[in-house]
Protein backbone atom coordinates (compact mmCIF):
# COMPACT_ATOMS: atom_id res chain seq x y z
CA UNK A 1 0.00 0.00 0.00
CA UNK A 2 1.29 3.44 -0.87
CA UNK A 3 2.13 5.95 1.81
CA UNK A 4 -0.99 7.29 3.47
CA UNK A 5 -0.74 10.94 2.60
CA UNK A 6 -1.31 12.88 5.79
CA UNK A 7 -0.14 16.20 4.44
CA UNK A 8 3.42 17.26 3.76
CA UNK A 9 6.10 16.06 6.13
CA UNK A 10 7.39 18.95 8.21
CA UNK A 11 11.04 19.75 8.78
CA UNK A 12 12.24 20.88 12.20
CA UNK A 13 15.72 22.37 11.84
CA UNK A 14 17.96 21.91 14.87
CA UNK A 15 20.25 24.95 15.12
CA UNK A 16 22.33 23.80 18.10
CA UNK A 17 25.53 23.77 16.09
CA UNK A 18 25.20 27.34 14.97
CA UNK A 19 25.60 28.05 18.69
CA UNK A 20 28.48 25.54 18.85
CA UNK A 21 30.39 27.76 16.39
CA UNK A 22 29.58 30.86 18.44
CA UNK A 23 30.73 29.15 21.66
CA UNK A 24 34.04 28.25 20.03
CA UNK A 25 34.99 31.89 20.72
CA UNK A 26 32.51 32.52 23.55
CA UNK A 27 31.29 35.50 21.51
CA UNK A 28 28.03 36.81 19.97
CA UNK A 29 28.15 35.38 16.42
CA UNK A 30 26.87 33.44 14.55
CA UNK A 31 23.58 34.28 16.25
CA UNK A 32 21.06 31.40 16.46
CA UNK A 33 18.31 33.99 16.05
CA UNK A 34 19.56 34.83 12.57
CA UNK A 35 19.83 31.09 11.85
CA UNK A 36 16.20 30.55 12.81
CA UNK A 37 15.03 33.29 10.43
CA UNK A 38 17.24 31.97 7.60
CA UNK A 39 15.94 28.42 8.15
CA UNK A 40 12.36 29.71 8.15
CA UNK A 41 12.99 31.55 4.88
CA UNK A 42 14.43 28.34 3.44
CA UNK A 43 11.20 26.49 4.22
CA UNK A 44 11.71 25.12 7.72
CA UNK A 45 8.43 24.35 9.51
CA UNK A 46 9.96 24.53 12.98
CA UNK A 47 13.13 25.21 14.92
CA UNK A 48 14.59 22.76 17.43
CA UNK A 49 17.12 23.61 20.08
CA UNK A 50 18.58 21.44 22.82
CA UNK A 51 19.11 23.44 25.99
CA UNK A 52 21.62 21.15 27.63
CA UNK A 53 22.35 21.29 31.32
CA UNK A 54 25.97 22.22 30.52
CA UNK A 55 24.91 24.93 28.03
CA UNK A 56 27.68 23.78 25.71
CA UNK A 57 25.93 25.46 22.77
CA UNK A 58 22.37 26.86 23.09
CA UNK A 59 21.86 29.00 26.20
CA UNK A 60 18.82 30.21 28.11
CA UNK A 61 18.85 33.62 26.43
CA UNK A 62 18.89 32.01 22.97
CA UNK A 63 15.71 30.12 23.82
CA UNK A 64 14.02 33.24 25.17
CA UNK A 65 14.94 35.30 22.11
CA UNK A 66 13.88 32.56 19.67
CA UNK A 67 10.46 32.40 21.27
CA UNK A 68 10.04 36.19 21.55
CA UNK A 69 11.51 37.31 18.24
CA UNK A 70 10.68 34.70 15.58
CA UNK A 71 7.41 33.57 14.01
CA UNK A 72 8.34 29.89 13.64
CA UNK A 73 7.25 27.14 16.03
CA UNK A 74 9.85 26.20 18.63
CA UNK A 75 10.65 22.70 19.87
CA UNK A 76 12.71 22.78 23.05
CA UNK A 77 14.70 19.61 23.69
CA UNK A 78 15.39 19.18 27.37
CA UNK A 79 16.24 16.76 30.11
CA UNK A 80 13.29 15.92 32.36
CA UNK A 81 14.61 17.93 35.30
CA UNK A 82 12.90 20.48 37.55
CA UNK A 83 15.25 23.18 36.24
CA UNK A 84 14.31 22.53 32.62
CA UNK A 85 10.60 22.20 33.36
CA UNK A 86 10.62 25.61 35.03
CA UNK A 87 12.49 27.16 32.10
CA UNK A 88 10.02 25.62 29.64
CA UNK A 89 7.01 26.77 31.70
CA UNK A 90 8.43 30.31 31.71
CA UNK A 91 9.31 30.51 27.99
CA UNK A 92 6.40 28.38 26.69
CA UNK A 93 7.75 26.83 23.46
CA UNK A 94 5.10 25.22 21.27
CA UNK A 95 6.61 21.82 22.07
CA UNK A 96 9.09 20.37 24.55
CA UNK A 97 10.86 17.12 23.80
CA UNK A 98 12.20 15.06 26.69
CA UNK A 99 15.61 13.60 25.89
CA UNK A 100 18.17 11.70 27.95
CA UNK A 101 21.34 13.60 28.72
CA UNK A 102 24.85 12.54 29.70
CA UNK A 103 27.37 15.24 30.58
CA UNK A 104 30.19 13.44 28.80
CA UNK A 105 28.27 12.47 25.67
CA UNK A 106 29.28 14.00 22.33
CA UNK A 107 25.61 14.00 21.32
CA UNK A 108 22.47 12.21 22.37
CA UNK A 109 23.37 8.53 22.46
CA UNK A 110 20.03 6.78 22.88
CA UNK A 111 16.34 7.24 23.41
CA UNK A 112 14.76 8.23 26.71
CA UNK A 113 13.91 5.14 28.78
CA UNK A 114 10.31 6.15 29.42
CA UNK A 115 9.32 2.64 30.50
CA UNK A 116 11.76 2.76 33.42
CA UNK A 117 10.51 6.03 34.92
CA UNK A 118 6.82 6.41 34.06
CA UNK A 119 5.60 7.95 37.31
CA UNK A 120 8.21 10.73 37.29
CA UNK A 121 7.78 11.48 33.59
CA UNK A 122 3.99 11.50 33.88
CA UNK A 123 4.34 14.32 36.41
CA UNK A 124 6.74 16.21 34.10
CA UNK A 125 4.33 15.88 31.17
CA UNK A 126 1.45 17.13 33.33
CA UNK A 127 3.45 20.19 34.46
CA UNK A 128 4.34 21.02 30.86
CA UNK A 129 0.76 20.48 29.67
CA UNK A 130 -0.44 22.75 32.47
CA UNK A 131 1.62 25.51 30.81
CA UNK A 132 0.07 24.74 27.42
CA UNK A 133 3.16 22.95 26.10
CA UNK A 134 2.83 19.85 23.91
CA UNK A 135 5.23 17.15 25.13
CA UNK A 136 7.22 14.90 22.85
CA UNK A 137 9.53 12.08 23.93
CA UNK A 138 12.68 11.04 22.10
CA UNK A 139 12.60 7.24 22.20
CA UNK A 140 14.18 4.18 20.65
CA UNK A 141 11.99 2.39 18.11
CA UNK A 142 10.66 -0.12 20.66
CA UNK A 143 7.00 -0.98 21.27
CA UNK A 144 7.42 -0.95 25.05
CA UNK A 145 8.68 2.64 24.88
CA UNK A 146 5.78 3.69 22.66
CA UNK A 147 3.30 2.09 25.08
CA UNK A 148 4.94 3.85 28.02
CA UNK A 149 4.91 7.17 26.15
CA UNK A 150 1.17 6.86 25.70
CA UNK A 151 0.68 6.06 29.37
CA UNK A 152 2.56 9.16 30.54
CA UNK A 153 0.48 11.40 28.30
CA UNK A 154 2.99 12.27 25.59
CA UNK A 155 1.30 13.68 22.48
CA UNK A 156 4.29 13.10 20.21
CA UNK A 157 6.98 10.44 19.87
CA UNK A 158 10.21 11.19 18.01
CA UNK A 159 11.84 7.92 17.02
CA UNK A 160 15.63 7.80 17.31
CA UNK A 161 16.99 7.30 13.80
CA UNK A 162 20.62 7.09 14.94
CA UNK A 163 20.88 3.27 14.69
CA UNK A 164 19.40 3.46 11.17
CA UNK A 165 21.82 6.22 10.17
CA UNK A 166 24.84 4.32 11.48
CA UNK A 167 23.73 1.11 9.74
CA UNK A 168 23.24 3.09 6.52
CA UNK A 169 26.74 4.56 6.75
CA UNK A 170 28.35 1.25 7.69
CA UNK A 171 26.62 -0.38 4.68
CA UNK A 172 28.22 2.16 2.36
CA UNK A 173 24.95 4.09 1.97
CA UNK A 174 23.13 1.01 0.65
CA UNK A 175 19.48 1.53 1.61
CA UNK A 176 18.75 -2.07 0.60
CA UNK A 177 21.35 -3.64 2.88
CA UNK A 178 19.74 -6.15 5.29
CA UNK A 179 20.99 -4.31 8.38
CA UNK A 180 19.55 -1.05 7.05
CA UNK A 181 16.22 -2.62 6.11
CA UNK A 182 16.02 -4.15 9.60
CA UNK A 183 16.40 -0.71 11.19
CA UNK A 184 13.82 0.81 8.84
CA UNK A 185 11.39 -1.99 9.74
CA UNK A 186 11.87 -1.25 13.47
CA UNK A 187 11.08 2.41 12.89
CA UNK A 188 8.10 1.60 10.67
CA UNK A 189 6.60 -0.79 13.24
CA UNK A 190 7.11 1.65 16.10
CA UNK A 191 5.63 4.40 13.93
CA UNK A 192 2.53 2.31 13.29
CA UNK A 193 2.11 1.82 17.05
CA UNK A 194 2.56 5.54 17.70
CA UNK A 195 -0.20 6.34 15.24
CA UNK A 196 -2.44 3.56 16.56
CA UNK A 197 -2.27 5.26 19.98
CA UNK A 198 -3.25 8.57 18.37
CA UNK A 199 0.15 10.16 18.95
CA UNK A 200 2.20 12.06 16.35
CA UNK A 201 5.01 10.08 14.68
CA UNK A 202 8.18 12.16 14.35
CA UNK A 203 11.75 11.03 13.71
CA UNK A 204 15.25 12.41 14.05
CA UNK A 205 18.96 12.13 14.85
CA UNK A 206 21.83 11.75 12.39
CA UNK A 207 19.57 12.15 9.36
CA UNK A 208 21.34 13.69 6.39
CA UNK A 209 21.15 14.36 2.64
CA UNK A 210 22.04 10.72 1.82
CA UNK A 211 19.86 8.78 4.27
CA UNK A 212 16.74 10.93 4.76
CA UNK A 213 14.48 9.64 1.97
CA UNK A 214 13.84 6.07 3.24
CA UNK A 215 12.62 7.66 6.48
CA UNK A 216 10.61 10.36 4.69
CA UNK A 217 8.62 7.72 2.81
CA UNK A 218 7.51 5.83 5.92
CA UNK A 219 3.71 5.79 6.25
CA UNK A 220 2.42 8.46 8.62
CA UNK A 221 5.69 10.12 9.58
CA UNK A 222 4.81 13.76 10.33
CA UNK A 223 7.98 15.67 11.11
CA UNK A 224 11.71 15.09 10.73
CA UNK A 225 14.15 16.87 13.04
CA UNK A 226 17.51 17.44 11.38
CA UNK A 227 20.36 19.60 12.54
CA UNK A 228 23.99 18.65 12.25
CA UNK A 229 23.82 17.70 8.55
CA UNK A 230 21.98 20.89 7.60
CA UNK A 231 24.32 23.17 9.54
CA UNK A 232 27.30 21.31 8.07
CA UNK A 233 26.00 21.88 4.53
CA UNK A 234 25.17 25.48 5.36
CA UNK A 235 28.87 26.18 5.89
CA UNK A 236 29.24 25.80 2.12
CA UNK A 237 25.89 26.76 0.56
CA UNK A 238 24.27 28.92 3.24
CA UNK A 239 21.55 27.91 5.68
CA UNK A 240 18.56 29.02 3.60
CA UNK A 241 19.76 26.93 0.64
CA UNK A 242 20.72 23.95 2.84
CA UNK A 243 17.20 23.90 4.30
CA UNK A 244 15.66 24.32 0.85
CA UNK A 245 17.63 21.33 -0.45
CA UNK A 246 16.59 19.16 2.51
CA UNK A 247 12.93 20.09 2.10
CA UNK A 248 13.13 19.09 -1.56
CA UNK A 249 14.66 15.71 -0.71
CA UNK A 250 11.97 15.07 1.92
CA UNK A 251 9.17 16.09 -0.43
CA UNK A 252 10.52 13.91 -3.27
CA UNK A 253 11.10 10.99 -0.89
CA UNK A 254 7.57 11.17 0.45
CA UNK A 255 6.18 11.36 -3.08
CA UNK A 256 8.00 8.14 -4.03
CA UNK A 257 6.52 6.48 -0.97
CA UNK A 258 3.02 7.49 -2.04
CA UNK A 259 3.00 5.58 -5.32
C1 LIG B 1 17.69 14.38 20.41
C2 LIG B 1 18.65 14.43 19.30
O1 LIG B 1 18.91 13.47 18.65
C3 LIG B 1 19.37 15.65 18.96
O2 LIG B 1 18.55 16.77 18.89
C4 LIG B 1 20.42 15.90 20.00
O3 LIG B 1 19.80 16.13 21.23
C5 LIG B 1 21.21 17.11 19.62
O4 LIG B 1 22.10 17.33 20.66
P1 LIG B 1 23.45 18.05 20.21
O5 LIG B 1 23.00 19.17 19.32
O6 LIG B 1 24.05 18.51 21.52
O7 LIG B 1 24.24 17.03 19.46
N1 LIG C 1 16.09 15.35 17.60
C1 LIG C 1 17.00 15.29 16.47
C2 LIG C 1 17.49 16.66 16.16
O1 LIG C 1 16.93 17.65 16.60
C3 LIG C 1 18.65 16.82 15.27
O2 LIG C 1 19.58 15.79 15.45
P1 LIG C 1 20.86 15.85 14.47
O3 LIG C 1 20.32 15.95 13.07
O4 LIG C 1 21.66 17.05 14.84
O5 LIG C 1 21.57 14.54 14.73
From TrEMBL:
UniProt cross-references to Gene3D superfamilies, sorted A to Z: Aldolase class I
UniProt GO molecular function: pyridoxine 5'-phosphate synthase activity
CDD domains: PNPsynthase
Site entry: Transition state stabilizer: 158
Protein's UniProt keywords contain NADP: no
GO biological process, one term: pyridoxine biosynthetic process
Name by which UniProt lists this protein: Pyridoxine 5'-phosphate synthase
Species this protein is from: Oryzomicrobium terrae
Gene name in the database record: pdxJ
Amino acid sequence: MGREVSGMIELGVNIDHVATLRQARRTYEPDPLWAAVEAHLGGADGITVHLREDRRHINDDDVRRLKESTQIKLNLEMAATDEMVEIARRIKPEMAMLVPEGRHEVTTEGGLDVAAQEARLKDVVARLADAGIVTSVFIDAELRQVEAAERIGARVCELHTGPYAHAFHNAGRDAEAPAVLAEIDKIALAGEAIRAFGMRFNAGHALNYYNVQPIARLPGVRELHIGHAIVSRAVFVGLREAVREMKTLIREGAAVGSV
